[in-house]
UniProtKB/TrEMBL annotation:
Family: Belongs to the acyl-CoA dehydrogenase family. Belongs to the 3-hydroxyacyl-CoA dehydrogenase family.
Domain 3-hydroxyacyl-CoA dehydrogenase NAD binding: 9-183
GO biological process, one term: fatty acid beta-oxidation
Keyword terms of this UniProt record: FAD, Flavoprotein, Oxidoreductase
Domain 3-hydroxyacyl-CoA dehydrogenase C-terminal residue range list: 187-255
Cofactor(s) required, per the database record: FAD
Protein name in the entry: Acyl-CoA dehydrogenase
Amino acid sequence: MVADEPRVVAVVGAGTIGLSWATLFAAHGLEVRVQDPRPDLEQAVGAAVRQLAATLPGGAQDPEVLLSRIVVVPDLEQAVAGADVVQENGPERIELKRELFARMESAARPDALVLSSTSGIMPSDMARDMAHPERLLVGHPFNPPHVVPLVEVVPGERTSPEAVAAAVEFYRRLGKQPVVVRKEMPGFVANRLQSALFRESVHLVLSGVVSPEDLDTIVTSSIGTRWATAGPFESFDLGGGPGGLRHLLEHLGPGMARRWKDLGQPELTPETVELLSSATEQRFAGQAYEQRTAERDRRQRAVLAALAEPEPEPDPELQPEGGVTASPALPRLLGDFYGYEHLLSQPDQEVLLRTREWLEREVRPIANDHWARSEFPHHLIPQIAELGIVGLGYPRADRPAASRLLTGFLSAEFSRVDTSMATFLGVHSGLAMGSVVLCGSPEQQARWLPDMFALRKIGAFALTERDGGSDVAGGMTTTARRDGDAWVLNGAKRWIGNGTFADLVVVWARDEADGQVKGFVVEKGTPGFTATKMEGKLTLRTVQNADIVLTDCRVPEADRLQRADSFRDTSRVLRLTRGGVAWNAVGCMMGAYEVAVAYAGARRQFGHPIGRFQLIQDHLVTMLGDITSSLGMAVQVARLQDADACLDEQAALAKLVCTVRLREAVARGRELFGGNGMLLEYDIVRYWNDAEALYSYEGTREINTLIVGRAITGLQAFV
């Protein structure tokens, strides 16, 4: 009747339901054709997929990969021609439906399965003008289809059993819960139940028994929770104790029957509509529809995850060292070929997934625009704070420190979407907060860290100078002179990330008295301190790098980092953050690899996707090898850091090797795009440019080579 394994699906109608279906189909690897007469079809598809990709029940997916599987086809006949399955989502008008199905039947393959998302029109009525109604049936989802599992499969009078079986199997492969409705009835089943409940809800509100808001609370806190785990019949059967439903109906049935007779019969008059609508609008005033929808879907996914069948307990004898377990809540990224992320505990995987969804939803859509304009998206700072990931690797009174494995994967996740945002967070959490944690006194930590954890105060790290980069340890010219209960700083710093808007800047300066490098926290607005944005930067353009000038800048002794007495203390901070740069390199490679794979599947030359060509596959496999080997190094460095056993040379080798491989991988990715690889709209050029910054900062390749060389030979080769 229909292809055993459908590969091509036509989505007819690109409203809310149709776009949700298209996202789900693409997420399962199907080739999707979307048809609708709306003039903004292509823009609507792109916007919807980029929003919905972060809310898929199995975990966020790269929207660009999904979009590479979707083709916009304005013509109806062209869209359905050759499709294995057609999912119709047009307006609920019977004459329009009949016209659509008649046109689709003439263009579709004879064995194509034709499904309708209608929420109440009978399939027999829709099929009236079809020559072959045996392949038409209803596949009615609950909104949104990409999240809520139910699909009501409703056959018409002339629908063949083979079509019903094919529809059920098709939906099951998508992770849906298909239920065959045995008899046609307006509204089918779920909507009739919903209508009955809503009718009584309206009656109770109009009668003054309860407010709309309290009624929502009652439903979600009682029968909503109960019926999510057991439907009405099972719930009442359990409520009857060992005697089951029979016992309950015998004892409570008479009272229930009396309530049935007393149920309200409200009319949806214009006055009633106005009353209910006004109350709801006032309740949700100021809350964006998109945010409310995303929050509803997040809660729905959490419920579905909780209801999922528990995984069997793993046999400890069969577990690899480290207790690696795979979690269905965190689908493997395209670039994580060996599933390293599943080394994380289940709670840590949930943190990573939540962060991934936020990045795909909020950061990816704006990354290129801010990069092009060299402007920082300040509106994202409160949202990052709400994620609860800032400074996660440091202990607080209310929680222990997270593992370096988790903070590493979070760094890679940021860099995979936008390396500039990863750098912002790395400078703040790694360099600035790390300086306070490692070099500050308990009093200083109590004064500065709470605001830094909450991103109420942003940090920067001022070490590099205009004429002192790699040799800054011995060649630092910024000076500090003790003057009573203060220090006077003079000098200049360059390439200071976050420097234009940081509230707290950790400045490293050489003490004129003993020649040792010391650390100072300079607060924004301190006299003698100026920060000017560097212009003309062609990498990490969203990061606001500053030239900083200190002219007789007085800093209280209380703001000198009390445990930073030499450059060895500065190196302690760098040892921590060099490992973080390795993670950033992994993430940047992953991002470049993902867009390259998507492009290889979508770009056609010589009549075929370029991904079919051997040389293109060679590029992709080599990129994947660079990612995988680098990820292995980053994971081991994180484990050493968690054991407090990571040496300078180990962090230096990871930074060195991972950024060299990064440079090679993004170059291959850009080459794969050809001329399009120089256009920002294809993303790859952003990763290509940003890789140069990761390659250069936190120790160049040459300097890190000498650090490792010194460790393995015992010989100093810096000068």
